[in-house]
Design brief:
Elements (H helix, E strand, L loop, with lengths): L2 H11 L12 H20 L8 E6 L7 E4 L9 H13 L2 H12 L14 H16 L2 H15 L2 E2 L4 E2 L13 E4 L6 H12 L1 H17 L10 E4 L6 E5 L11 H18 L2 H15 L24 H15 L4 H18 L30 E2 H18 L9
Antiparallel strand pairs: 1-2, 1-8, 3-4, 5-6, 6-7
Helix pairs in contact: 2-3, 2-13, 3-4, 3-5, 3-13, 5-6, 5-7, 6-7, 7-8, 7-9, 9-10, 9-11, 11-12, 11-13
The structure holds glycine (GLY).
């Protein structure tokens, strides 16, 4: 019996009802985020004015200030900082933060009329403009998301049935059609656009992508390949490989996290129970092999475990996903997923993982790209994004509201 199943069994055996038992102080953690947002804005302003085209990306282990990157179609993380500002505004209702969110968001508007560079357009636009529209209902924001969804759809290959994630890797790597697990997140923009005037085709593309990925990009034990390489003539899988994981056959923590988040979202958008069944299997294989603090090593087969670097970003992504997933289930599974998500958030909110006064980021200890020696044990902007998202999801649940905060 594995650890996760044993936990479930004990939960029932002890006569506990199927109620979530974990609680945390979300306001305390969100207040902390608000302080860190203020520190980051102060740092970005420096002695003069903010350059709204420069987005915080990371703070390396030995440093204390953000490395910022220019907004370009190639810089995939540029939507997270505007998204954090929108989430912070949602919590604080601070109009000054809203103003900053609007200005940083608008730096990404050029993407609405730029040919697709890669699948990351979904991260870029939906984390920024998606939250902007959710909170303001500004029709200009809606149009930008609709344009971006149409642009993302140009990468869909109907023979394969998935989106080409990295056009730039077709030639150099001999990956004729490649789809990475991260791409699952970007289906959310297609589902949203389909419901908001973009047409049924976008829904069909998202479903096709999710189905083919479910069929081809997971091993029999429900762990995922980071990259699926497909034949463009037959549409068949050629091979599953890694790019950011330890080995082709290992479970890269953030890749599995993207899958858990992505299939939870696919169930939400389609109500197809095959996704609900599947996401529990891919979640359980992840949960069953975590360290005691629920923050994974950057790859589940990383060398030097237990001294390998962690990936707090994966923990934040999974916590956010499991809070949502718990609302689609009943009984012990719902309670189990909610409790484990709260434990993740509690540990991320501890001194071991929060940057505290040492840096203006929310979190420490994420790993971006270990094989490339890049962003190891660092603060990374997408960890902060999913952390504040998960805190807000938890707060909404605790307040009896819709977990997604749609209004
Ligand atoms: N989408 C790239 C990553 O997760 O690092």
């Amino acid at each position: 019996m594995n650890k996760f199943v044993l936990g479930l069994t004990l939960l029932c055996f002890c006569g506990c009802s199927h109620q979530s038992t974990e609680i945390m102080d979300a306001d305390k953690a969100l207040d902390y985020c608000a302080v860190q947002v203020g520190r980051t804005l102060k740092e970005l302003k420096g002695d003069s004015v903010i350059d709204y085209t420069m987005m915080p990306r990371n703070i390396m282990d030995s440093l204390t200030t953000w490395e910022c990157r220019k907004v370009t179609k190639e810089e995939w993380t540029s939507g997270f900082w505007p998204g954090i500002l929108w989430y912070d505004y949602e919590y604080t209702h601070d109009e000054a933060i809203k103003l900053e969110a609007e200005k940083f968001t608008s730096s990404l508007s050029f993407l609405a009329h730029t040919p697709a560079y890669d699948h990351d357009l979904g991260f870029l636009i939906f984390c920024s403009y998606g939250n902007a529209y959710r909170l303001t209902k500004n029709p200009a924001y809606k149009q930008i998301i609709l344009n971006a969804a149409d642009t993302l759809a140009t990468l869909f290959n109907p023979v394969v049935g998935t989106i080409l994630s990295w056009p730039r890797e077709v030639g150099p790597r001999h990956w004729p059609h490649n789809t990475i697990m991260d791409n699952m997140i970007n289906l959310e923009m297609l589902f949203w656009a389909s419901k908001n005037g973009g047409g049924k085709r976008l829904y069909d593309i998202a479903v096709s992508h999710a189905d083919k990925t479910m069929k081809c990009q997971f091993r029999p034990d429900y762990t995922s390949y980071h990259v699926a390489v497909y034949d463009t003539i037959t549409g068949n899988l050629i091979k599953g490989v890694t790019h950011q994981g330890y080995a082709d056959n290992s479970m890269w923590a953030r890749g599995q996290a993207w899958a858990i988040y992505g299939y939870t979202m696919c169930y939400r958008e389609t109500k197809d129970t095959k996704y609900l069944d599947f996401v529990q299997k891919i979640s359980d294989v992840y949960l069953n092999d975590l360290p005691s603090d629920y923050v994974p090593y950057w790859d589940f087969s990383a060398p030097n475990i237990p001294n390998a670097p962690r990936d707090a970003s994966a923990a934040a992504i999974v916590a956010s996903a499991l809070l949502e997933l718990s609302t689609y289930l009943d009984g012990e599974k719902a309670a189990q997923y909610k409790d484990v998500a709260i434990k993740m958030l509690k540990n991320l909110s501890s001194r071991a993982y929060q940057s505290g006064e040492s840096k203006p980021s929310f979190l420490l200890h994420s790993t971006g790209h270990w094989p490339a020696g890049s962003e190891i044990n660092a603060s990374i902007i997408y960890a902060d994004y999913y952390y504040i998202e998960a805190l807000l999801r938890y707060k909404r649940l605790a307040d009896g509201e819709n977990v997604l905060g749609r209004f």
